[in-house]
Amino acid sequence: MQTAEQLIxxxxxxxxxPQKQNEILQDLANTVSNxxxxxxxxxxxxxxxxxxxxxxxxxxxxxxxQLLASKINDFEGFKARIEQDTIDEIADNIKAVHNQARxxxxxxxNT
Amino acid sequence: xxxxxxxxxxxxxxxxxxxxxxxxxxxxDKEGMPTNNVIDISRAREAKEIRRGRPPKDxxxxxxxxAARKRDVGDLVGVDDAxxxxxxxxRFISEANMRTIEANAxxxxxxxxxxxxxxxxxxxxxxxxxxxxxxxxxPAPEVPDAQAPQESTEPTQEPPAxxxxxxxxxxxxxxxxxxxxxxxxREWVRSTEDPKAxxxxxxxxxxGEAEIARxxxxxxxEERGSGDIDPRxxxxxxxxxxLNGREGKPNPTQDDIDYYxxxxxxxxxxxxxxxxxxxxxxxxxxxxTPTPEDPGDQEPIQPxxxTPTPEDPRDxxxxxxxxxxxxxxxQPIGQEPPGGPEGPDEPEGPEIIExxxxxxxxxxxxxxxxxxxxxxxxARVNSERMFGGKNDAEMVEASTELxxxxxxxxxxxxERAATRTAEAQGRLDGLTxxxxxxxxxxxxxxxRLTTLExxxxxxxxxxxxxxxxxxxxxxxxxxxxxxxAEIAAIEAQNQQEIAxxxxxxxxxxxxxxxxxxxxxxxxxxxxxxxxxxxSGVRIVAGIGLAGIGIFxxxxxxxxxxxxxxxxxxxxxxIGGYNASRGVGELVAGRRYQDSDVSTVEGYTDAAQRQSRxxxxxxxxxxxxxxxxxxxxxxxxxxxxxxxxxxxxxPAAPDVAPKAPVAAPDVPTPGHPDLALVDxxxxxxxxxxxxxxxxxxxxxxxxxxxxxxxxxxxxxxxGGGLGGIIRVVAPDGYVYQGNAAINAAFDHLDKxxxx
Lengths: 111, 754
Fold this sequence. Notes:
The structure holds 2 protein chains of 2 kinds. Chain A contains 5 helices and no strands. By secondary structure, chain A is an all-alpha fold. Chain B is mainly alpha-helical. Chain B has helices at 41-51, 66-73, 95-103, 105-110, 132-137, 165-177, 185-191, 194-204, 221-224, 231-246, 254-269, 355-385, 392-450, 457-520, 522-533, 543-547, 561-575, 583-587, 599-620, 682-690, 695-704, 738-753, and strands at residues 78-79, 85-86, 92-93, 711-714, 724-728, 734-736. In chain B, a hairpin with a 5-residue loop joins strand 5 and strand 6. Residues 1-41, 56-60, 115-163, 200-235, 268-356 and 553-669 of chain B have low confidence and may be disordered. At the A-B interface, helix 1, helix 2, helix 3, helix 4 and helix 5 of A face helix 13, helix 14, helix 15, helix 16 and helix 17 of B.
């Protein structure tokens, strides 16, 4: 697990205002959550989801949560992989754009 | 410049008036033309037409009444037997100017220097011996009685001069048709071609002045003819003479003469640049008269105020604090820093143009990205609905478009960041260069100081110079520090923008997918709603992020669609993209600048779409198997870091679910990298592979797959309509599309057999 500082460094936002940093991290968390939700939905059949839905209708939220987790092997590891993949992907892309910006700048100075 | 310093050969200068001296005439004040000024506009315009080689419209051609001309203006200028006018020096006066003089003979007589003392701005006792004023009072060779008759000093009752109405009409029409929108009359006149401006000036100025301003060769030689008047010269001269008169100086002063001589030489050197402002021509030009502004709009008759242009050499502060010429003859320190004597206040950076085009490109890229996301999500859902991946072509196309849009967005972001930084860096470099140049000058002055005796009168000047240079260096150093802080702020801004846009773009894809899936899967909708309403539910929270106290809004009390909407808002915040508007409209020209961003509208649109989505979801209640796969749409972008000096290229459509193994560089733990096989229907593939009906084998594999951690999803249909939707690996990796499904089936077949 990486610290917030490490994450900020990876995203290349170390010079950004802390409030904005937090906003970006929240956006990142949103993205990760969405991807996990998508992955859960693909792992579960419609029947499984209907079961969860029925539990939710009965206000059995804890059971619903357990059911969801039980339907996926190594649920925590599964989530961790998705999260790491997402962060890696975004961080790499951000780094790539910064590198490209530097190249453009160098090129403009040289010309 | 005193009157005594007037040049002896003034009669040879271009300021020699061709008509009786008008230099000390009274000129219209700010309130407009005095009523006693007789300006025949129609005649003047006529004269203008003649100069352009076109006869007047109403009288063409017009014959010269020689006798009438001699009678009317014979007391002012010489008129020979052919009717041609001659000035006091015997030089021919153009026909156009003769007509102007004829048209304004009364005005000229009335305003002649000896006509009325109160009309003169110049005191006669200060007129130098050889000024044009005195010369003009001498009888012309061919005009024995060139003095203005006293009886003609009576003010006429003719109406004051007025601007040719067609100019205003043209301006009004230009405003109506939009070509002069948001332009004042002054700006419009300035922006139109010189002949038009010249026409305006010549028609609205006192025509008696026209000949005085003949020193100009015309603002545009092709349009104006050799004898025509440069409106700027006319304007300059008018203004200068008024100033001179007010200050008790002769007209013209030696400064004026030198300046106009220089200006004339400059025109000869650069005939193509005759429209150049005088002050912009050469830094070493003699002191010019401050250049007033262009013709006015609100008060067109009003003489312009002396507004020195920044380029006017007279207005530039000397490098050194003393007004005296610098006593350093060698001028080792006289090398001017970049940009002139004082150096530029704002040194120019690299010629990188940011501005609207880049903003528009970013807006377009954001728009394309958003549309590509939506299209991709729809294609995915459609693909899920169709049996056997019949909609794969649309899927591949949509994913390719998504990749391309993302690459474009990244490229524009990079360019925008580079441009911002380069501009600031350019300014900083310019300041540094300027400071170093000043340092060199100060060092040279110091060196020279060491060679002088302490009581040398030059010492004090040098010391003052050095102090001024050091002070200027200190000022520039302060600005450098401010510029460095600005660069740091720009870097932070770039970091924020890039991260924000990319994170949100990535999130937008997933949010759009969830939205689409919600539309067709009520159960998922219910689960998603539950997650949104209960912030305590962390089942979909990232482990690492939750560990450091960061939870996505999806786990909070925020509608999921807001995720997509917020992403668009984030894009629009920097690019002016309105989510509801299509790319076509944006590209077609309705581009949104930063200031035009309507975030409220964007939110409204998103809310409406959300409502529609939910209505559709309730109405259809469609159930489409399991959910959709997460899409690694932009994984390939990471490779951009290795692409030095290369524009982003659309990556191969590795995002297509049908080709999950087409990206070997992507680490995909938990599932094998399978080589794609043929993309025919699984039944066809299996039948061909085993040499008999493939259906039993497919069913067997589907049933046994869970035993090895795999899952095969079918469409649930029978009666010959059944089909495989996807094959899911133990880690959740999805093989979708015929080619990938066939590869997965081959793999499972071996796995199960083993």
